Amino acid sequence: MFELSARAQDYLNRTKKFIAEEIEPVEADFWQQVHELNQGGDWTKWQWPAELESLKAKAKAKAAGLWNMFLPCPERGQGLSVQEYAHIAELSGRSLIAPVVFNCNAPDSGNMEVLWRYGSEEQKQEWLMPLLEGKIRSVFCMTEPAVASSDATNMQATAMVEGNEIVLNGRKWWSSGLGDPNAKIIIFMAHTPDETKDRHHQHSMVLVPVNTAGVKIERMLPVFGDYDAPHGHGEVSFENVRVPVANFIGGAGQGFEIAQGRLGPGRIHHCMRCIGAAEKSLELMIDRGMSRSAFGKEILKLGGNLERVAEARVAIDQAR
Questions:
Q1: pLDDT at 2 over 90
Q2: 88 and 11 in contact (C-beta within 8 Å)?
Q3: CB neighbours of 80 closer than 8 A, spacing ≥ 6?
Q4: Angle at Cα 300 formed by Cα 295 and Cα 306, nearest 5°?
Q5: Does 63 have pLDDT greater than 80?
Q6: pTM for the whole thing?
Q7: ∠ CA 320-302-308 to the nearest 5 degrees?
Q8: Please, are residues 23 and 101 in contact by the beta-carbon 8 Å criterion?
Q9: Does the N-terminal peptide bond of residue 74 adopt cis geometry, omega within 30 degrees of 0?
Q10: If you average pLDDT over residues 193-201, what whole number do you get?
Q11: CA distance 119 to 207
Q12: Is 233 left (phi over 0), alpha (psi -120 to 50) or beta?
């Protein structure tokens, strides 16, 4: 990896210390509370344990300064580059709650970057500032049930201008964070037909408050039987939803460009968090293998288990 500046190394050291001293000792109990508080897929009853706000307050405090580290803006973030933050993202990936505690969690981090880079001053005041302060959560609606949504030009949901309003219609799913009780704002990506423009300038991003008339959360989608409560990945329909034209982010037809700008840093954030999770998983595998014995030796030393550890080590290093 690249050599870090003294300032970035300091952030990395303090992040590691905070995770070790404040998060890891309570994480098992925290997730036990999550499971007790959130049973099944009824997102209307989901909630976070009260302890989360205490952890967030400690991370946000000036003494720690471990807040919004993903944002390269020195006024609203910590002024770290993507390369510098990548090391911190890896560390935070070792814990399921660390990204939330540091206000660096998906999809909020990507949505905040969108508003910071492309939003109007009014949009920043109304939505970016509460997100930066950790008071609300957000949702990104791009993927659709009927089309391969990795190609954004396939989208069938529409954002049509009628007078001084945008009328939205369509259905989205796998919208992460939709079940969060603090989710207040959606970034909705849709087709805005315009025959005078090429196919990459016919999509828009629109800000839609979750409680807008016509927005209906249909269900939460389980993954391997788990709903990832109280975050959730939901299916949501938009039926003749009307919002002001001022809710376009960057103007009509700029959605594809904004998506590319959002996904650039976001991919790095995700990749490094996954590497952190893989490192933690490898440690747990080794601990488990050395703590249990069979046939007179630790199970890690039986059969091809050591080879599996070695293969995992190589795969993680390759990914990094």
A1: no
A2: yes
A3: 8, 11, 69, 70, 72, 88
A4: 125
A5: no
A6: 0.93
A7: 15
A8: yes
A9: no
A10: 89
A11: 10
A12: beta
Would 6-105 and 137-253 be classified into the same CATH topology? no
* Two tokens, residue 264: 């650039």
- The arithmetic mean of pLDDT across residues 94-98, rounded, is 96
Second CATH level (architecture) for the domain 137-253: Beta Barrel (2.40)
What confidence score (pLDDT) does residue 255 get?
93
> Judging by DSSP bridges, how do beta strands 215-220 and 297-298 pair with one another?
unpaired
Do 172 and 157 form a contact (C-beta atoms < 8 A)?
Answer: yes
Distance (Å) of CA 45 to CA 109, 230, 300: 25, 9, 42
The domain locations on the chain are 6-105, 137-253, 278-319
What DSSP string describes 258-303? HHHHHHHHHHHHHHHHHHHHHHHHHHHHHHHHHH-EETTEEGGGST
Class of domain 6-105 (CATH, top level): mainly alpha
pLDDT of 283-315, one tens digit each?
Answer: 999 999 999 999 999 999 998 999 999 999 999
Give every CB contact of residue 249 below 8 A, 6+ residues apart in sequence: 114, 115, 118, 119, 123, 187, 204, 205, 206, 207, 255, 258
Q: Which amino acid, residue 101? A: V
Q: Which amino acid is at 190?
A: A
Residues near 306 by Cβ (< 8 Å), separated by ≥ 6?
300
167: β partners: 160, 242
Place of tokens 């989901």: 46
Output the six-digit token pair for 239: 């039926």
Sorted by sequence, the CB contacts under 8 Å of residue 243 that are 6+ apart come out as 165, 166, 168, 206, 207, 208, 209, 212
State the Cα–Cα distance between residues 96 and 101, nearest whole angstrom: 10
Strand-strand pairing, 297-298 and 158-162: unpaired
- Under 8 Å CB-to-CB from 40, ≥6 apart: which residues? 227
The type of residue at 249 is: I
**Tokens encoding 205:** 């991003």
